[in-house]
Amino acid sequence: HPQTPPIHPQTFQSVPVPQLQLTEEEKRLLAQEGVTLPGELPLTQAEERLLKKVRRKIRNKQSAQDSRRRKKEYLDGLESRAAACSALNQELRKKVQELEKSNGSLLRQLQALIKETSTKPAQTGTCVLV
């Protein structure tokens, strides 16, 4: 009967254990929670829940930052539009004043012409037929 060869430990290839990769933010929040997770997977259900909770906090924080950034951009845009409208409004008010002044001057000239023509005696003209 054939003998099985002896098994030597160096003949086994080591199976790599998946490592848990955490960001600095995740590590910081886990430390705040007073939790240290093992460096290898799989995690227990409780550890999975904690990690999900921390990752959700990070997503919420990022979402809040994005929301504040978008709101600031929107308000900056409104402020610049308001400033542009205000400048245009000032320009148009100035133009209205100039036109009203010009209109008043033209009106006085017209009234003077009307008065001048109404006080002159009517001139009789001679028509020659050829």
Overview of the structural elements:
The chain is an all-alpha fold. It has a domain at 24-92. The chain has two helices and no strands. It has helices spanning 24-33, 45-119. Helix 1 crosses helix 2 (45-119). The termini are far apart. The model has no long low-confidence stretch (mean pLDDT 86). It is found in: Endoplasmic reticulum membrane. This is Cyclic AMP-responsive element-binding protein 3-like protein 4. One of its GO terms (cellular component) is endoplasmic reticulum membrane. Residues 75-116 form a coiled coil.
Give the overall average pLDDT.
86
What structural category characterises the helix and strand content? mainly alpha
Q: Major sheet, described briefly?
A: none
In which range does the helix fraction lie? Answer: 55-70%
Low-confidence stretches: none
- Large-scale geometry: rod-shaped
Strand content: under 5%
How far apart are the first and last residues' alpha carbons, in Å? Answer: 155 Å
Oligomer type: single chain
Count of β-strands: 0
The topology string of helices and strands comes to HH
Give Rg in angstroms.
Answer: 45 Å
How many helices does DSSP assign?
2
Protein name: Cyclic AMP-responsive element-binding protein 3-like protein 4
GO molecular function: DNA-binding transcription factor activity, RNA polymerase II-specific; RNA polymerase II cis-regulatory region sequence-specific DNA binding
Subcellular location: Endoplasmic reticulum membrane
Keywords: Activator, Coiled coil, DNA-binding, Endoplasmic reticulum, Glycoprotein, Membrane, Nucleus, Signal-anchor, Transcription, Transcription regulation, Transmembrane, Transmembrane helix
